[in-house]
User: Which sequence fits this backbone?
C-alpha cells in the first residue's frame, strides 16, 4: 500500500522497475481509469522535446513514417513518451476529461490545459496511431489519454492566444523564469544566451532584460538566425558561432558574461558556455543534451570558477511569466510565431 | 597556429576531433616533449575516479588483470585516462620533471604535486604496464609522464601528510569547498549528505559545519557505514537508506534539508536528492554518475522548486580547505584513513 505522498508522485503507476519514480521508470501503467487523486486529460497534441525529436529524426534519416512508428512503439512499450536515448520527453495539450475527487490541482472538466511536467513521466495512451502526424515536426496531433498525478502541474490555456502558440511558449517556460531569478539573485549585468533565436533563447533574453540585465549578447548559429534576432531587437549584440566549438564561442562572445544561458539543443555546448562566462559567474544549462560529466570536468579542467545550474523546468510563476513576455514583447512574438505550426 | 589562450587550454594537444577542448577529445597527443608553457610530471600514482573504477570493475566481473588491461588500452588509444562509459577520469600524483619557461603555474622541478584537473583531459603516457597494480583498487601505482597546460591546477603535496592521504583528500577537494560556499551564500541551516561516510561525503559534512550549518544529516547505505559515521561524530543524525530509492531517501531524511549534497558514486540518486530537499533549497551533485535529464526532468516532474548545481571540481582555495579539514578534524581522519591504501 502506497502512502498519499508516494501516490501523489505517481509511484503506483510504475510497473518496472518497482520503487522508482515515474520519470526513472522503464514502463508505466497508462490505464485511463483514474485514481481518486488523479486527473485524466483527453490528449489533442504532443509537443516533443527538441533534443528528442532531433535524435529520432536523425536516427531514421528524416523518414517521417519511421519516426512516427518509433514514437508509437515507445509509447506502447513504455506507457509514456520518453526517448530512450535522450531521456527526455516533451509536453502535451488537451482537455480535462475527468477529475478525481481528491485531486489538489484545481482543474475542472472541459478546461483546455497544457501539462507542464515532462512527457517522460506522464502516463500516455495513444488511440489514433498518430495518423494525422507526418513525423516531420515536434508538434504531434494525437488522440488518447494522459494522467496527471496529485503532485503535478498543468496550465489552463489562455483565451487570447492560439493553442499552438501557448503550447510552444509553455513548453520552454522554465528557461525565462530561471534566467530572471538568477539575474535577480546574482545581480548579473551581462548575459549571453547560446541558441538565442530559438523559443527558450529569445524568451530568456527578454526575461533577462525584464529582470534588469543591461548587456545582452545573443549567440546564434548562422546569418539567417542572426538577421532574425537583430530584427527582433532583443539583444544588444548578436554574434554567430557554432555553440559546440568552444573556442569559436569564446571568441564570438568576447568579454565573458556574468550569466550564460545554454538553450541550444545539441550535445557539446558545455565547454563553450564555461569559456563564455566570467570568473564568479553562472551558467544555466537548459539543453536536455547537456552532459553532466562534460560540464563538471570541463569547468574543473579549465580552473573556471563558475556556478553551473541544472535548468530545472519548474520555477513558481513560470507559465504566467513566459506568456506575459510573449504578449508584451513584439520581438519574442516575431521569433516564436514562425516556429509554431498548426496555429 | 593557436593563440596563447587556446594553447593554455591544451587545444594543441587534441588529435581527434580537432577544435574541441582536451576533455571532450577522443584522443590526445601525450608526447612527453613539452611546449614553452607546459609542465611535465613524472607520474607515481593515479587515483581513478570512483564511478569510473566501479564501472570498469563491474564490466570485468572484478577480474583485476582485465581491469588493468582495460586501463592500459584506454590510455594507449586515447592518450589520457578517460573512461569511455562514465566520461570521468580521476587525478594523479608525481614529481615535477620539467617546467617550460613560459608556464604560469609557479612549479619547480622536483616538487611533489597532485594534479587537480581531471585525468579526463590530462595527456598521459604509461611506461611500466601498471605492473605494480592488481586492478582491485582506485589507487594505481604507475610510471610514466603527464602534461599540465598553462591553464591548469596542481597542488604541491604537504610535508606533514602521507602522499596517499593527501592524494585521497585532494581528489575530492571540490566537494567541501562548494558545500561551504553554498552554505555561506544561501544561509542553509540544515544539510543532508547522501553518501556521507565516503571521502567527499565526510569532508562535505565537516565543511558544512565549519561554514555554519547547524543541522547535519548523513545518509549512508548500511549499518556498518552508519556505525563508522556515528563514531566520527560528523553528523547530528545518521540514517540508512539506498540512495537510489527515492522514496526510501525521503523517508529516511524526514524533514527536507535546505541543502542536499550528493556524494554517492552510483547512478540514480537524483530523485531521492530532490525529494530530500526543501522548497527553495539547493541540491549539489558531486557524483559523476549524475544524469542531467534525470535531475532536470525529475525536479520539474515533482514541481520541486530546488536549485540544482553541477558540482564544479574547482572552487578557489579548495585544496587548502580540504587538507585543513582533514588535519583539524579527527572524525574526517577516522573515515578517510581506512580508505587510503599504500600509505
Assistant:
Amino acid at each position: 500500500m502506497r502512502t498519499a505522498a508516494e501516490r501523489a508522485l505517481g509511484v503506483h503507476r510504475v510497473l518496472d522497475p518497482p520503487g522508482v519514480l515515474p520519470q526513472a521508470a522503464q514502463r508505466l501503467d497508462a490505464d485511463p481509469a483514474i485514481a481518486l487523486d488523479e486527473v485524466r486529460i483527453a490528449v489533442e497534441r504532443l509537443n516533443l522535446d527538441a533534443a528528442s525529436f532531433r535524435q529520432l529524426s536523425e536516427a531514421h534519416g528524416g523518414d517521417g513514417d519511421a519516426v512516427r512508428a518509433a514514437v508509437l512503439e515507445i509509447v506502447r512499450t513504455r506507457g509514456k513518451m520518453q526517448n530512450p536515448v535522450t531521456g527526455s520527453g516533451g509536453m502535451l495539450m488537451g482537455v480535462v476529461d475527468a477529475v478525481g475527487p481528491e485531486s489538489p490541482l484545481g482543474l475542472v472538466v472541459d478546461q483546455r490545459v497544457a501539462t507542464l511536467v515532462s512527457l517522460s513521466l506522464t502516463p500516455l495512451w495513444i488511440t489514433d496511431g498518430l495518423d494525422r502526424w507526418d513525423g516531420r515536426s515536434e508538434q504531434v496531433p494525437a488522440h488518447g489519454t494522459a494522467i496527471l498525478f496529485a503532485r503535478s502541474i498543468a496550465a489552463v490555456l489562455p483565451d487570447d492566444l492560439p493553442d499552438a502558440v501557448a503550447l510552444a511558449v509553455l513548453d520552454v517556460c522554465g528557461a525565462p523564469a530561471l534566467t530572471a531569478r538568477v539575474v535577480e539573485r546574482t545581480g548579473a549585468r551581462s548575459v549571453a544566451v547560446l541558441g538565442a533565436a530559438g523559443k527558450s533563447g529569445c524568451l530568456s533574453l527578454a526575461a533577462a532584460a525584464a529582470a534588469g540585465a543591461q548587456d545582452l549578447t545573443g549567440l546564434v548559429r548562422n546569418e539567417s538566425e542572426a538577421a532574425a534576432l537583430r530584427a527582433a531587437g532583443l539583444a544588444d549584440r548578436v554574434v554567430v558561432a557554432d555553440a559546440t566549438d568552444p573556442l569559436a564561442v569564446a571568441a564570438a562572445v568576447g568579454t565573458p558574461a556574468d550569466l550564460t544561458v545554454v538553450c541550444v539543443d545539441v550535445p557539446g555546448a558545455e565547454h563553450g558556455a564555461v569559456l563564455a562566462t566570467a570568473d564568479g559567474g553562472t551558467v544555466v544549462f537548459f539543453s536536455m543534451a547537456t552532459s553532466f560529466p562534460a560540464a563538471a570536468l570541463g569547468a574543473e579542467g579549465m580552473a573556471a570558477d563558475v556556478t553551473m545550474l541544472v535548468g530545472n523546468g519548474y520555477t513558481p510563476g513560470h507559465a504566467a511569466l513566459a506568456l506575459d513576455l510573449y504578449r508584451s514583447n513584439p520581438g519574442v512574438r516575431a521569433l516564436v510565431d514562425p516556429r509554431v505550426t498548426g496555429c
The CA atoms of residues 172 and 200 of chain B lie 5 Å apart. The two ends of chain B are 45 Å apart (CA to CA).
